[in-house]
Design a protein that fits this description.
CATH class of the largest domain in chain B: Mainly Alpha
CATH architecture of the largest domain in chain A: 3-Layer(aba) Sandwich
Bound molecules: zinc ion
Number of helices of chain A: 14
Distance between the termini of chain A: 42 Å
Radius of gyration of chain A: 27 Å
Helix content of chain B: 25-40%
Strand order of the largest sheet of chain A: 3-2-1-5-7-8-9-10
CATH topology of the largest domain in chain B: Arc Repressor Mutant, subunit A
Shape of chain B: globular
Structural class of chain B: alpha/beta
Order of helices and strands of chain A: HEHEHEEEEEEHHHHHHHHHHHEE
CATH superfamily of the largest domain in chain A: NAD(P)-binding Rossmann-like Domain
Number of domains of chain B: 3
CATH topology of the largest domain in chain A: Rossmann fold
Strand content of chain B: 5-15%
Number of domains of chain A: 3
Strand content of chain A: 5-15%
Oligomer: heterodimer
Shape of chain A: elongated
Structural class of chain A: alpha/beta
């Protein structure tokens, strides 16, 4: 109920806390609108620790919103602003102590900077000129997601692979003794379970629908045609099958993710959340090995047409299992690392989402063979060369810089909170000719 | 100014002078509005007029970067303007007001602007400004955000599709009997607590609903249930008396009435519970006041006893506030007392109906129709909007705009999944949708009438003038779009002898004339919409009708009758027009696909019927 209410609704209090505790390093030649806008957005979102490196020779753009940065940024966040500015020679600059930052933003610099040590946080390169610009995310270690905040997740009903209590519950419902009204009040999960357990085998949603029509509509309950629960059973027949998907996720975890994380782990992770999630992922593999290939159950049930009583009874079966699984999972977490409870809980709620098993920066495929031509043109601009594109041959670019700064800060939030899928990994923008725009992997 | 030389470079001297002479209207000084104001100033637009109704709230400060803690409760428009003065080269004029108020903002006021930027948060105002831009043919740059998603849509009247060419998400509605008798989801209980209970107890105007109207639609035909709803409403009025009489000791009586006696009465309606779980009244022993008011975590769900205690505590607080606030407290999601009351009441009701309870945090989002909002999305949408304005005004010397349809919309989404390429999508603008009730399916004009004629012209005379000027046949209908009512049609002529002023037509009224005749050739005149401007003196009789060419078109097939009867007529809308963070924007990025767009077009009926339907429907908006 406060200043951050509207954004906490996107990434939760834990996410906001990560933003609040984050430390941003920004390197720029001089003070530009792009730099100021990035800092403004970051502080507005709740960030307050900034280390800024400016070139000793770098000047100030003559098109700035803010005069004195500290004076302008401080009122945007009730936390005290910790802004330290250093003037350095960027030509020979090596970012010191880079491992202590949450992220590094390089504003308008033609080449990537080197950093001390082996570990580096994510680096965002960005630039805007005229009506064009780009954002490029460079990762030194896999970026792991805690919650992709996927709006469409597939619930793990496990009707095709039930555990003891679920079977017991389902078997305690005697559909053959029910009248049509009672049948119409059953959640669709029950109808699907019963259909799966008729003598007619169904291994696909299409087959299941056929069997459902034959055994239920043309058998048990001929009056079901207009029943909402029957309509849902048909519509959500595919939800009955969770085993294949689960096997696929486990396969991905075992084959791709775990070996990669083990390798990475030898070096250690720069990012604490990455370290936590990597530990949880390898725990997840051990859990699955010990539990017949299953992940801890997530209790989130979709809405189902039924009486509240029936729905709640079913929900209790899922909730009990989820609570037990979570407790079992927690027992397997190695003792040498202390992971906050809420991180573990959130992780377990999301083990059904694909994005968890596609660490950004490694598992999403090789770089593209060629970069978009506009990106080359922009890079030549950065080096001070002239480029024969009218939309680039201008120095005024305030609106474009506002736009690019918005994107940069948006990506920062995704990276810092380990929620939402960050850009993979470069976006090139052209306001004049959308044909030139591209997302690519560098 | 050094800024100037930069801009001259990109625009050229001639265009720079043009931008210095450009007058912008910026509607909204909220999230996008603050960003746009800054961008427009830094682009050196000559004049910027900014309109906002709202005052600043703490929850704005995470993105509306021109405002500070000390500005809370001050008007957004003037505060924003004060905050930008020090870097502004532009003339900036703030207005605190509702853009839909035609007294403060008459049509001719809009005509002074070269371009309009919409930075609004609600559908009603977006639609209104869109319509105005269609009347005066001024380009409109529409924009909106919801969380990580944002969009801009340039609208060039007559050339590209308008805001209403595609269907917009409308607020959820619920049948009255679900809310009052048979809730099955948390939102039903929240709507009950907020729209029925809270407003009845703390914000009731004693005029109320006309309960004796024999034509009133109750959402049910069960006479027993209607009787019960009537009685319940009367009893609620008695509860209201407890509040206004400050009888704190009788708060337990309110609880007993709402959560025990009313539920017991409901249980007597046996046919309601044949296919539903029966509600269980609360335990009277739980109605106890806690000695102290502890601070609880608003993210958690508290046990029922705690909910009841909270109900008592917060009701006491509200009772204390009543006399100071003229016995009228409105629900406001950012007013903690009102929010906690609604949360406690809806959770108690949820418990009774075996529905899961919700945390105060979640209830706030539902009851307040809160759309998540962040600085970054606002910044990038405003950036896109200001870049696009340069193209609309044709200010880029190297990129002259040949065809309005070469402009692009923009949708931005959090997803950067490459295969879908949705990071930023830029569909080209479509031409107006021929079925659009706003920009294509009606002819539009401005009608001038003198003050005197408004007093003397009868509706009959007025209709005759319209008919003869535009060659409509006998059967026409005339609707007052502003007041949402029928003035005349083939079987309603009661108002014909009233004068225009008696009919409450005024400066800013919009009327719709449509052809209801049944011609042999199956042709109908296109409907015409008029904006009424009242001008001139009290002495002079004068009415000036615009010169319009209203074509004859083949009549649409009459499929609407079935639609009208199948519509659920008695509904509760949860919208809260005109407030911050309220209305669902067109945030569905799927609208970028033209397939879907055209799919939704097919659902739209012919425009005149659509309008009529909106008037016929008894949609209760209880806010
Ligand atoms: Zn339209």
């Amino acid at each position: 109920m406060d200043r951050y209410d509207r954004q906490v609704r996107l990434w939760g209090n834990a996410g906001q806390d990560l933003v609040r505790r984050s430390h941003l390093c920004v390197v720029s030649r001089g003070e530009t609108p792009l730099l100021q806008e990035i800092l403004k957005n970051y502080v507005l979102l709740g960030g307050s620790r900034i280390t800024l490196y400016l070139d000793a020779e770098g000047g100030r753009s003559n098109h700035l919103l803010y005069g004195d940065l500290r004076e302008a940024l401080a009122p945007l966040n009730p936390e005290p602003l910790e802004l330290t500015t250093h003037r350095v020679n960027l030509n020979s600059f090596v970012i010191p102590n880079s491992e202590r930052y949450s992220a590094i933003v390089q504003v308008g610099l033609p080449v990537g900077l080197r950093h001390e040590g082996d570990l580096s946080p994510p680096v965002i390169h960005c630039f805007a000129r005229g009506l064009c610009g780009y954002v490029h995310l460079q990762l030194s270690e896999p970026h792991l997601l805690l919650d992709p905040r996927n709006e469409y997740t597939i619930p793990s009903l496990r009707l095709d692979n039930p555990w003891g209590e679920l079977s017991q519950y389902m078997d305690s419902i005697h559909v053959e003794q029910m009248d049509d009204v009672q049948l119409s009040q059953l959640p669709f999960a029950v109808l699907l379970y019963k259909t799966l357990n008729t003598r007619r085998a169904a291994t696909t949603a299409a087959q299941l629908k056929t069997v459902l029509a034959e055994t239920y509509l043309h058998g048990l309950n001929p009056r079901a045609q207009s029943d909402l629960n029957y309509a849902e059973a048909v519509r959500f027949a595919h939800l009955a099958f969770t085993k294949n998907r689960q096997d696929g996720l486990l396969n991905r975890l075992t084959r791709d993710v775990c070996p990669l994380l083990e390798q990475e782990n030898k070096l250690g992770f720069q990012d604490t959340m990455n370290q936590y999630i990597a530990t949880l992922l390898s725990t997840l593999k051990r859990y699955a090995d010990m539990h017949n290939g299953h992940f801890p159950l997530d209790a989130t049930l979709p809405d189902m047409e039924s009486t509240t009583h029936n729905y709640n009874a079913l929900k209790r079966v899922y909730e009990a299992k989820a609570a037990k699984d979570l407790a079992d999972f927690k027992k397997l977490i190695p003792g040498d690392i202390e992971i906050p409870e809420h991180v573990i809980d959130e992780f377990c709620r999301n083990t059904k989402t694909t994005e968890l098993f596609e660490p950004l920066g490694v598992c999403r495929g090789p770089p593209d063979s060629s970069a978009p031509p506009l990106l080359d043109a922009l890079k030549r601009c950065q080096e001070g060369k002239t480029v024969d594109l009218p939309q680039l041959n201008v120095t005024f670019s305030y609106p474009t810089e506002t736009y690019i700064a918005g994107l940069v800060t948006q990506e920062l939030v995704k990276l810092i909170t380990h929620q939402f899928v960050p850009i993979d990994n470069c976006f090139v923008y052209d306001a004049l000719d959308p044909q030139n725009m591209a997302t690519c992997r560098l | 100014m050094p800024r100037e030389t930069n801009i001259v470079k990109i625009l050229g001297q001639k265009n720079y002078e043009k931008i210095r002479n450009t007058k912008c209207l910026l509607v909204g000084a909220g999230g996008i509005g603050s960003e746009l104001l800054k961008d427009l100033i830094l682009m050196d637009f000559g004049e910027i007029h900014i309109v906002d109704l709202d005052t600043i709230d703490l929850s704005n400060l995470n993105r509306q970067f021109l405002f500070r803690q000390r500005d809370i409760k001050k008007p957004k428009s003037t505060t924003a303007v004060n905050a930008v003065k020090h870097f502004s080269n532009s003339k900036i004029v703030p207005y605190q007001g509702n853009i839909m108020d035609s007294t403060q903002f008459p049509l001719h006021w809009f005509e002074q602007f070269d371009i309009i930027f919409n930075a609004l948060d609600n559908l009603a105002a977006r639609r209104y400004v869109n319509k105005i831009s269609q009347f005066i043919l001024t380009p409109l740059l529409e924009s909106g955000t919801a969380g990580f998603d944002g969009y801009i849509q340039p609208i060039i009247p007559g050339k590209t599709e308008c805001f209403d060419c595609t269907k917009k998400e409308t607020p959820k509605t619920f049948p009255v009997c679900t809310i009052r008798s048979t809730p099955s989801q948390p939102i039903h209980c929240i709507v009950w607590a907020k729209n029925f209970l809270f407003s009845q107890l703390f914000a009731a105007e004693n005029t109320g609903d006309n309960m004796d109207d024999p034509n009133k639609d109750w959402g049910t035909t069960d006479p027993e249930e209607i009787k019960r709803i009537k009685q319940e409403t009367n009893e609620l009025q008695e509860l209201q008396n407890i509040i206004t009489a400050k009888q704190k000791e009788r708060i337990p009586a309110i609880l007993k009435k709402l959560f025990i006696q009313d539920i017991e009465k409901l249980l007597l309606l046996g046919n309601l519970w044949k296919t539903r779980d029966k509600p269980v009244p609360i335990n009277a022993l739980d109605i106890v006041k806690s000695p102290e008011d502890e601070k609880l975590d608003l993210n958690n769900i508290w046990p029922i006893q705690q909910q009841i205690q909270n109900f008592i505590n917060v009701t006491e607080k509200l009772i204390d506030r009543m006399p100071k606030e003229n016995n009228f407290i409105e629900f406001d999601k950012d007013d903690e007392d009102t929010l906690e009351f609604v949360a406690a009441a809806s959770n108690i009701r949820s418990q009774i109906f075996n529905i899961p309870m919700k945390s105060v945090f979640d209830i706030k989002q539902i009851a307040g129709n809160i759309i998540p909002a962040i600085a970054t999305t606002n910044a990038l949408v405003a950036g896109l909007s200001s870049i696009t304005s340069l193209r609309i005004l044709n200010l880029l010397k190297y990129a002259p705009l040949k065809d309005a349809k070469d402009l692009n919309m923009a949708f931005t989404a959090k997803s950067s999944n490459m295969s879908q390429n949705r990071y930023l999508s830029n569909p080209k603008l479509a031409p107006p949708n021929c079925k659009c009730p706003v920009c294509a399916a009606v002819v539009r004009g401005v009608l001038h009438v003198s003050k005197k004629s408004l007093e003397t012209f009868t509706l009959q005379k007025f209709v005759e003038c319209l008919q003869s000027q535009y060659e409509y046949e006998e059967d026409i209908s005339l609707l007052d779009m502003t007041g949402q009512r029928l003035l005349v049609d083939f079987d309603f002529d009661d108002l014909l002898q009233k004068t225009l002023s008696e009919l409450k037509l005024h400066d800013g009224s919009v009327i719709l004339l449509s052809d209801d005749s049944d011609r042999d050739d199956g042709m109908l005149k296109k409907p015409a919409e008029f904006y009424i401007v009242v001008s001139g003196s009290l002495n002079e009789e004068k009415m000036e009708l615009p010169k319009l060419n209203i074509p004859l078109l083949p009549a649409p097939p009459s499929t609407t009758d079935t639609e009208e009867t199948s519509e659920n007529v008695d509904t509760v809308a949860t919208t809260e027009g005109g407030q911050e963070d309220v209305i669902t924007i067109l945030d569905d990025t799927d609208t970028t696909s033209s397939k879907k767009r055209h799919f939704s077009d097919d659902d739209e009926g012919p425009p005149t019927k659509a309008v009529k339907q909106a008037i016929d429907d008894d949609i209760i908006e209880l806010n």
